[in-house]
Design a protein that fits this description.
This protein is α+β, with helices and mostly antiparallel strands. About 30% of the residues lie in helices and about 20% in strands.
Length: about 300
């Protein structure tokens, strides 16, 4: 559905999905190569890398280019009693994915591209991965600490219900969603129900001029820049190339940094085995329209 207006691109992506791509497919993708030095380089487009470090570097560079004051969003952590400092330090060093989607410190400016990192209201489409632009940041006049981050989301339905009911005049006038800090509980020892917990209050946002492949699953983008360059990983993981490329709605909206090769495209053998199992079971037991769909999906 994402590429419904570009049949040739759909067929190419289906081959990439099952790692049955041809050399011509690789050449077609490589033909979309761009360089940051190009006059018409799409610097405005979302950039996708496989790893966190180049994502962070790109986001920080874009943040530095923005005029205006820098706002520092610091988490408020409440620690449980009788827990060793070294255990708490280990928790604080965890990735955002292991701390309820909330970072210890966030740097933003008005005009920054951001993404929600936790679900605020699923019914109101204020969900993890929702992207937008910071319109304004309110601060407490007494201590100068940020209290509200107003975001203009790309999805016009994100926060629509909240905007209908809010008494916040700025939010209603400019149709920007007021995002406030949320509370999460982080277990010191994950997986143990009786584990002591750190309570963290923080804004559920992160910079998003660039994202990892993991964070863009589900996004639909008219224009995207996908990097084939690896910094720390020795190779791409199963499905990473397919997920990244298939965010674009058309081949013309896809731009490639670096050089793609067939060895980059990998599909988990267990997934292919399951496709085949479903196909055979379907043909034998359930020759219906749904089964025909499974047959089409299989390699």
């Amino acid at each position: 559905m994402r590429q419904r207006n570009d049949k040739a691109f759909i067929e190419l992506l289906n081959r990439i999905r099952t790692a049955n791509q041809t050399e011509d497919d690789i050449k077609v993708i490589q033909s979309r190569s761009v360089s940051p030095d190009d006059l018409n380089y799409p610097s405005h487009a979302l950039h996708i890398w496989a790893e966190n470090s180049p994502v962070d570097k790109h986001n920080n560079q874009k943040l530095e280019q923005l005029a205006g004051p820098l706002f520092v969003l610091k988490a408020k952590d409440q620690f449980p009693p009788n827990v060793k400092k070294q255990d708490i330090d280990k928790v604080l060093a965890r990735k955002r994915s292991e701390t309820g989607g909330l970072d210890l410190v966030i740097h933003i400016k008005e005009g920054a591209r951001v993404m929600l990192t936790s679900n605020i209201s699923i019914a109101d489409r204020l969900i993890n991965g929702q992207m937008g632009t910071v319109f304004k940041v309110d601060v407490n006049p007494t201590n100068q600490k940020p209290t509200i981050v107003y975001i203009k989301f790309d999805d016009p339905n994100a926060g629509k219900n909240l905007l209908k009911t809010t008494s916040n005049l700025l939010a209603r006038e400019h149709q920007v969603v007021p995002i406030e800090p949320v509370l999460v509980k982080i277990k010191i020892r994950p997986g143990k129900p009786s584990s002591p917990e750190i309570q963290r209050v923080q804004f559920p946002v992160t910079l998003a001029w660039a994202c990892t492949v993991h964070k863009v699953q589900g996004l639909t983008l008219d224009e995207v820049v996908v990097s084939m360059e690896l910094v720390n990983q020795r190779s791409f993981n199963y499905g990473q190339i397919y997920v990244a490329l298939s965010r674009a709605t058309s081949l013309q909206g896809l731009h490639i940094l670096g050089e793609i090769a067939s060895k980059h495209v990998k599909t988990n053998p267990k997934v292919l085995e399951e496709y085949e199992r479903l196909r055979k079971e379907c043909i034998v037991s359930h020759p219906t329209t749904i089964c025909n769909i499974i047959v089409m999906l299989s390699p």
